Amino acid sequence: MLKEYTNKYTPIADLSIIGMNGVEEITDAIDRYLLNWRSEEAKSRNIDTFKIKTKCPRFGTGEGKGIIFESVRGNDIFIISDVFNYGVTYKMYGKETMMSPDDHFQDLKRIIAAIGGKARRITVIMPMLYEGRQHGRQMRESLDCSLALQELVHMGVENIISFDVHDPKIQNAIPLSGFENFHPTYQMIKSFVSTEKDFESIKDNLIIVSPDAGGMGRCIYYSSVMGVDLGMFYKRRDYTRVVKGKNPVLSHEFLGTDLKDKNVIIIDDMISSGDSMIDAATKLKERGAKKVFVFAAFGLFNEGLDRFDKAQKDGIIERVYTTNLIYRTPELKTRSWYHEVDMSKYVASIIDVLNSDKSLSELLDPVQKIKAILSNSVDED
């Protein structure tokens, strides 16, 4: 259990947590876990929170600055940033403006600059990696994710923590710095088992499906630890044109076993517009699939929820599982097809271990805990 990691090690320095704009909910939950696990440390430091108060105010032109309201000299600082939270706004020339990923990333740099090199160590926890989809060059184009990582390291960031990175090879951009890519596999499976009341009957005819070739790595892992079959879709794209920043998909071709009366979990790193996910689910149902579930670390739903409402109504999708690592709209949380997977305890455990400079290997590979869940021998924590 994650609780086994607590109270085992000695911190390398006083722990401080900075939650950027839009991550207040998960930062508060992480703080509560750490205060519970480290009650003696909190008492000795005479504190009731590990959070550090900061602010990134804006001028009327939209320009901003970062402010830290207490000393962080010599502290081990963890900065949590959701650069995809468009629910945060600011005034620019009198107009309410949604914060873009660029705005969030700039504020992150402002807070790092405000620390002024006085911290013992800085770790950035960025669940969904800024510009993570712009990880490779296919023509004369910018390599934004690599540049962003290098900029953070140049500013003094020692570790970068992210989840379900679109292409893990992006860490090659900063080969001498810490970069950890975690996966919500354990939390997803645990939530799925506890939510689906007929899980025992579901798992008897279960298959894992990747919506494209790029996601096969994570799907192979799920398939292996769950001991079920694997399939994939091949996306045939039109590379002669670009629509909304990407080459449009012409068709999905399925590679895998017979799907008749099978229960299917489609697994991907993110749901963007949702078109590909629903298209894949539709084709699975056409091939005789019984129930179709969706696992995605990040639910962006950047073209609305209506298509998923319709997919559920038409019996295409049973349920969608995403994490609370990024912003979720109030409307999304009301949907009967949506289930949120809480990652706050896992992130708190990562901070707990890193603050003591110990190995993260057991947190990175939860195979035994997953097998315990599937064999119904896990206790809730």
Q: Which regions are unreliable across 5 or more consecutive residues at pLDDT < 50?
A: 1-6, 377-381
Instruction: Return the structural class.
Output: alpha/beta
The CATH class designation of the largest domain is Alpha Beta
**What portion of residues belong to β-strands?**
15-25%
What is the name of the CATH topology of the largest domain?
Rossmann fold
Percent helix, as a range, is 25-40%
Strand element count: 16
**CATH architecture descriptor text of the largest domain:** 3-Layer(aba) Sandwich
Terminal residue distance: 7 Å
Assembly type of the chains comes to: single chain
Strand order of the largest sheet: 12-11-10-13-14-15-16
- Give the domain tally: 2
Taken in chain order, the helices and strands follow as: EHHEEEEEHEHEEHHEHEEEHEHEHEHHH
What is the molecular shape? globular
Total helix count? 13
- Global Rg: 21 Å
Major sheet size, sense and barrel closure: 7 strands, mixed
Average pLDDT confidence is 91
